Amino acid sequence: MTTDPMERIAAALERISPAPIEAPDFADADAFVWHVSPDRLVPVPEVNRVDMALLLGINRARDTLLENTLQFARGLSANNALLWGARGMGKSSLVKAVHAAVLGEGLPLKIVELQREDLPTVSRLLTLLRGSGERFVLFCDDLSFSHDDQHYKSLKAVLDGGIEGRPENVVFYATSNRRHLMPRDMIENERSSGINPSEAVEEKVSLSDRFGLWLGFHACDQDQYLAMIRGYCDAHGVEIDDGTLRAEAIEWQATRGSRSGRVAWQYFTDLAGRRGVSV
Fold first, then answer.
1. Interval 192-196 mean pLDDT
2. 201 — pLDDT class (breaks 50, 70, 90)
3. How far is it, in rounded angstroms, from Cα 49 to Cα 103?
4. What pLDDT, on the 0 to 100 scale, is given for residue 266?
5. Superfamily (CATH H level) for 26-217
6. Residue 144 has what pLDDT?
7. DSSP string computed for the chain
8. pLDDT at 235 over 80
């Protein structure tokens, strides 16, 4: 039994601060998910994707993000990207589809998904990725912050990188329903109640300014909505005449109270099931 006080302290610190984890074999997969407690990168054998050709009505965002990602995969400079806007319009689907398109070009690129609640651990993840010879898209889906949320401070480690700088082999893509990553009413509240109104929200609002690319996604119109469904039908071999599709799809959207790519896919899933087609 250890009696030296310094040895006991050292042993206690070792228990509290576990040794750094070893990087996984990145050849095992092209996609990984970051988990904590304990820290680990878990490979994803098969990514849940939608083919890029089926993502309609977002051509500008698609082309811009694809070009940025190709540059990065080729070892050139590239920007962090914020995909913001309407729910269900393919923001996260586009990130995964672009990754697949880059792999299809024969370029090695890994994607690592990070949950918003795990942002405080991002410095440990970046240390792990920095030491690898691979190139990574670090992806955070549905990123936003509430009034008293301090996680946004950890995000700066990804966007700015502190004294070390962001790792050259990592680029950060995030999706959000909010352009400034926090609700507008909270921005206005801090602006009106702060001692120095211009500085009260600057730290949080400026987070979005740190993304080199802002890609906006807007609600689709009815023609785009129907075209999405027709595209799904053609891709999966589901036969339905235009009149029936239009009537059913419009009724489906009415029950949901909105039109989006997600609603289009949900209607198509129901249709395919009724037609005996597995998707």
1. 51
2. low
3. 13
4. 96
5. P-loop containing nucleotide triphosphate hydrolases (3.40.50.300)
6. 75
7. ----HHHHHHHHHHHHSPPPPPP--GGG-SEEEEETTTTEEEE-SS-----GGG--S-HHHHHHHHHHHHHHHTT-----EEEEESTTSSHHHHHHHHHHHHHHTT---EEEE--GGGGGGHHHHHHHHHTSSS-EEEEESS----TT--THHHHHHHHT-TTT-S-TTEEEEEEES-TTSS-HHHHHHHHHHSSSHHHHTHHHHHHHHT-SEEEEE----HHHHHHHHHHHHHHHT----HHHHHHHHHHHHHHHT---HHHHHHHHHHHHHHTT---
8. yes
Question: Facing residues of 172 across strands?
Answer: 138
What pLDDT is recorded for position 193?
52
Mean pLDDT of the chain: 84
Beta strand 40-43 pairing with 31-35 = antiparallel
Nearest CA to 43 out of 139, 133, 112, 137 is that of 112
Reported confidence tier of residue 149, pLDDT bands at 50, 70, 90: low
Higher pLDDT, 160 or 129: 129
Angle, to 10 degrees, between the axis of helix 242-256 and the axis of helix 261-274? Answer: 120
CA distance 273 to 250: 18
**What is the residue extent of each domain of the chain?**
26-217, 222-274
CB 217 within 8 A of CB 261: no
Which tokens go with 224?
């785009």
Is the pLDDT reported for residue 184 higher than 90?
no
Rounded to whole angstroms, how far apart are CA atoms 91 and 111?
15
pLDDT in tens, 63-99: 999 999 999 999 999 999 999 998 889 999 999 999 9
